[in-house]
Amino acid sequence: MRSLASLRRFKPLALVTVGLAAVLMLPTSASADLQSDIQNAVQEFLDVGRTSVPRADCGPGSLPENGMQGDVTAADRDSGRSTQGYRCNMSFVGGFAGRGAGITSTSFEHCSYMGSFFPGDLISEGRGVQVVDASDPANPRPTANLTEPAMLAGTWESLKVNTARKLLVGTGVPVGMGVGYLSVYDISDCAHPRLLNPGPGTNMLMPLPITTHEGGFSPDGNTYWASGIAPGFVSAIDLSDPANPHVVWQGLTGIEAHGFGISADGNRMYISALGGFTVLDISAVQRRDPNPQVSHIGRVFWTDGWATQHSIPVTYNGKPYLYTVDEGGSGGVKLIDISDDTNPKVAAKIKLEINLPQNLDSNIGSSMGGSAFAYESHYCTADRRDNPTALACGWISSGIRVFDVRDPFNIHEIAYFNPPARTGQNLSLWNSPHALASIIGVPLMSAPPAIRAVLEGQFNPSDALTPRTGRLAFGDVSTDWCLSPPEWRGSQLYVTCSDNGFMVLQLENDVYSPPADQESIVGS
C-alpha cells in the first residue's frame, strides 16, 4: 500500500488527466484557440482554492478561536468551551432567541423576520414567522406572528424583503420543496406587517402553480422568483398588484435550480446549479413582453464546492462581478468576472483555513457529531453594490465572518462572531433546523472534498480521528448554524442563526467604517 507521502506525488486528480486527454482527442482540424479554451475550462472546472484569506487581527475585548481559522475544535466542543462562543472585533449587543430560527431570515429598517421551520414552528409559542422589533438594539422584542399557510409551512430560503416597495414575501416549504403557497406583506410599519394577498397564494383553496425551495426579488420589486430545487424549475411571479400575485413565466433552467442573484437592471439572472451557475437573459420578463422567452447565455461550473447557494452582483470601478457562495464542500465564496456574461470567469476565492484541502481531515475530526453541515459558507451580504468595502457572511458552524473587500484581489478577514453553542438544548429549539438535523451526526456536506483530499494524498486519518469520531447520530449542538445573510446597519449587523435566533452585533476596534451609501446587497 502506498504511503501518504507517496500519494502526495499524485496531487493533481486523475480527472485532470482525463480532461486533458479529451483535449488531445480533438480532431487535428480543431483550432489551437479551441483547444486552449477547453483546456482552460477543464482547469477552471477542476481548480481548488488552496490558500485562505489572512486572519483578522483581533483587538481588545476579543475572545478568539483556539484552533485554525474557522474551526471549533473537538476539545472545545467536548469541554464546553464552545458554549462561550468566539469573537474577534465584534460584540453582542442584544438578541431574541425564541425557539430558534429557520434556515434564512431577513430584515427591514429596525425589524427582523425570523424564518420558520416545519414542523417545529407549529408547536412553539411563536408560531410561524416571528416579527422582532430591534429599535432598542439591546432589547429586541417580538411584536407579531405571521401565521398564513406559507408562513406555517416553513419558509426555508424564500423569506425576502424588497426595500424599494417595502414588501416582505415568503413561500411555504415544508420539507426541502413546497408547492402553491406564497404570502405578500406591506412592511411600511415594519413591526406590524399587513397581509396584501388574502386570496391567491394565501387562501388554501387558491394555490399558485409554483414549486419553491428558495426565492427572491428583482431589484424593482415587481417580480418575485421562486426556484424549486430539482428539477431546475423556476417561476416568475408578478407582484405589480401585490393583492393578485400571478405567474408570468415558468421554465426548466437545468437539472437543479437553487438560489440566485439578479443584475441591477433586472435583465440577468445568475441561477445556481449543483456546482456553479447559469446566466439567464430574463429581460423579456422584466419588460413584461407577451409570452416572454428566457434564454441561457452563459455558464460556469466547478468542483471546488457544491450546492451553489446564491450570487451577489457588484461592480468595481464599473466592471461587473459576482460574489458567489457555495453551500457545500468547503467551496467558500468565489469572485466571478462577468464582464463577458457569455463566459464568466472565476477571478478570486475566499476560504478560511478550515476549508482548505490539506485541513479537511481536521475539519471532519472536529465537526463529527455536529450534523450534516460543518464549516461551509451559506449566505453573504455586500455593504453596497458599487465598489463594496465589506462582505459579511453566515459561515454555518464558523459563525458570522466579515471581510474587507475594498481590493477584491487582496481580501482579508477583519472580524468574526461565532455565537455561544446551546449544547444539549436540542429539545427546546423547536424552530431550529440545526437541532432537528442533529439526528444526523455526520458532516455529509463535507464528503465530496474529503474524498478528493484522500485521492490527492492530503487526508491524514490520524488527524480525522478524535473523541468525536463515533458520533454518527444524535448530534450535541456544540456550535450554532449561521445560515442567514447578515444585514448592515451602520457599524452593526442584524444576524440570525438557527439556535441563537436574532442578534444585533457591533463591529469594534475601528476595523470598519460604514460608507455613506451603505446598503445591504444580497442579490435578490
Short key terms for the protein model shown above:
alpha+beta; disordered N terminus; 11 helices; globular; 524 residues; 31 strands; single chain; 4-stranded antiparallel sheet; 31% strand
Explain what you see:
The structure is a single chain. By secondary structure, the protein is an alpha+beta fold. 14% of the residues lie in helices and 31% in strands. It contains eleven helices and 31 strands. The strands form eight sheets. The chain has a five-stranded antiparallel sheet, with no helix packed on it. Helix 2 runs antiparallel to helix 3 (32-46). The longest helix is centred in the first third of the chain and has 15 residues, at 32-46. The radius of gyration is 22 Å and the shape is globular. The protein starts with a helix and ends in a 17-residue tail after the last strand. Mean pLDDT is 92; it is low at 1-30.
Question: Widest sheet: strand order?
Answer: 1-28-27-26-25
Mean pLDDT: 92
Contiguous uncertain segments of 5+ residues: 1-30
Strand content: 25-35%
Cα Rg: 22 Å
Task: Please count the beta strands (DSSP E, at least 2 residues each).
Answer: 31
| CA(first)-CA(last) distance | 51 Å
What's the shape?
Answer: globular
Helix content: 10-25%
Keywords: Signal
Protein name: LVIVD repeat-containing protein
Organism: Nocardia suismassiliense
